[in-house]
Amino acid sequence: MRPLRLVSNMKSTLNSSPAWLALIHHHRDMQSKHMMTLFDKNPNRFNDFTLEFEGILLDYSKNIITDKTLKLLIKLVKQQGVEQFRDAMFAGERINNTENRAVLHTALRNRSKSPVYVDNQDIMPAVHAELEKMRIFTDKVRSGEWKGLSGKAITDIVNIGIGGSDLGPQTVCCALAPYASNLDVHFVSNVDGMHIENCLKKLNPETTLFIVASKTFTTQETITNAETAKRWFLGHENVIESDVAKHFVAVSTNDKEVSKFGIDLDNMFEFWDWVGGRYSLWSTIGISIALYVGMDRFIELLEGAEAMDKHFQEAPLEENMPVILAMIGVWYGNFFGAESSAILPYDHHLQFLPAYLEQADMESNGKSVDRDGKETTYSTGKVIWGTEGINGQHAFYQLLHQGTRLIPTDFIASIRSHSKLSNHSNILASNFIAQTEALMRGRNMKETRLQLRNAGVELKEIEAHLPHMTFRGNQPSNSIVLDSLTPRSLGSLLALYEHKIFVQGAIWNLNSYDQWGVELGKKLARNILDELESDKSLYEHDNSTDGLLNWFLDRRNKDKE
Ligand code: F6P
Fold first, then answer.
1. Is 224 in the pocket of ligand 1 (CB under 6 A)?
2. Could you tell me if 407 and 386 are in contact, meaning their C-beta atoms sit under 8 angstroms apart?
3. Where are the alpha helices (DSSP H) in 43-163?
4. pLDDT for the residue numbered 559
5. Catalytic: 519?
6. Which of 283, 266, 314, 312 is nearest to 214 (CA)?
7. Residue 159 Cβ contacting ligand 1 at under 6 Å
8. Distance 224 CA to ligand 1 centre (A)
9. Is 413 exposed, middle or buried (0-12, 13-18, 19+ CB in 10 A)?
10. Does the N terminus or the C terminus of the chain have fewer Cβ atoms within 10 A?
11. Is 544 exposed, middle or buried (0-12, 13-18, 19+ CB in 10 A)?
12. Is 219 in the pocket of ligand 1 (CB under 6 A)?
């Protein structure tokens, strides 16, 4: 394991390494190639550039790549020791070197009997015990055996958390909504009081269960929302302090803070510091998922992820889905200069996937210092963004089709929809496939001219319209097609992206498992909160921040006059 060097003013040498230089050279040949000509040269391209895993298709044929590109990228993966690093992660080595922690979200979905060691201690018994505790609890709540303060069964679950303690469970609950039965689940993350106020308005304290989900249990937004929920709960007639135990549970790694908050440790579900927040949905943080769809479905989700873990560990690099996705991302980000990448699900239940992957990817690989403390002299994590593809088509796809930037895209679709409206499903699928085609093909002058002529447009007008209606295409896309969105396929899909992020981080020699950058804003917010609460400027800021703060205070004080 490479040791952590805390301070270094040296720069990383990745971009002068042999594999990198070979890719720079190859990029010179590839940069002006059009994908359509690559298909002309190789009519087998679809077969050559697709992979299938348990009914999940990865079609990466619509990329500006050739066999040679992939070979050179694989050399880069090997040069960077990605396979050894992967094995170190699965083996429980402390690859999160700045926090001196193992990275073992994969152990949470290890369904085999094999042990996983952290510091010579097998962590699997604790993982299984917590899953069992989760099963007993969720079965009780779902069956109505768990009674609220007035003896009524629980009808509503409120997950209070933020970041990984919110996005993961919310993404999965939405994705698996067709599997839900009797409970409604709500997510509160924003400290803007409107979020929790709007949520509480709909709820009955007698039948509501709050899950306070926070790895650290010190996150200001979560604790503030949880306190508000508790006040709301206790503010009802006939509700007494001891009723809290029937309506509040915690999920955390921090039992001290959980106790301090007033939640009985019997009602706490544990996880461990070797689970990163953005990788925690597989842990007890997934309790809202298990409540919503049942523990058996939650286990299927874990099994799907485990299957992808095995594929990642065992498949040769050239047939390894996460490796292929990661390498293609590096190819565009580092050699074509792509700044962003869009996630475009064509499945309504995957509507939260872009937001989930924004955190997973950008909080992991948004780094400018490598594992050894050296400044990276190459780009790292791209801006990840997106929305449901079909809505995006009517909003921002214009820029994908005719803008000036190269924006690689991932299209994600399911063949079998949970909807019974088959005409809707066909329209949705036709749009997904057509968009990947249009992004690749574009439309040349000849085709445009012909189309306008056939539409009876006059010659003079045709010539005026031509530049506006012609576009180059050559926008790359991956298509990930699921047979259907099930707990298992979803588990595999999410693990696919986790490992893609891992591979990219390893290529760039990053620590993908810390997030020091988010701390400064939190610290400054604490100072500014003091100032807002005391109604005056207390600390020295820069001129702009002082100006903004004073403007805010002045205006607010005018309201009071
Ligand atoms: O501030 C960022 C972050 O630490 C994320 O990494 C994390 O998912 C989120 O806040 C919530 O943290 P916690 O689960 O400790 O409340």
1. no
2. no
3. 45-48, 67-79, 82-90, 105-108, 124-143
4. 75
5. no
6. 283
7. no
8. 14
9. buried
10. C
11. exposed
12. yes
* Residue 9, pLDDT score: 57
Q: What is the pLDDT of residues 71-87, one digit of tens each?
A: 999 999 999 999 999 99
**What is this structure's pTM?**
0.96
Q: Contact, 159 vs 208, CB < 8 A?
A: no
Arithmetic mean of pLDDT, 304-313: 98
- Atom 9 (ligand 1) nearest CA: 163
The answer to whether residue 4 scores a pLDDT higher than 50 is: no
Edge-first strand listing for the sheet containing 477-484: 50-53, 56-59, 477-484, 409-416, 340-346, 383-386
CA distance 453 to 478: 34
485 in Cβ contact with 346 (< 8 Å): no
CB atoms near residue 237 (< 10 Å): 5
Structure token pair of residue 461: 């007008």
Mutation to probe ligand 1, out of 101, 217, 219 (largest number of atoms < 8 A from CB) = 219
Q: Which residue bears the tokens 């403390």?
A: 373
CA distance 388 to 322: 22
Helix, strand, coil shares, percent, the chain, to 5: 55, 15, 30
Ligand 1 atom at minimum distance from 161 CA: 16
pLDDT class of 3 with cuts at 50, 70, 90? very low
Q: Whose CA is nearest to atom 5 of ligand 1?
A: 163
Q: Which two tokens stand for residue 153?
A: 């069964």
Helix ranges (H only) for 361-421 are 364-365, 389-393, 397-402
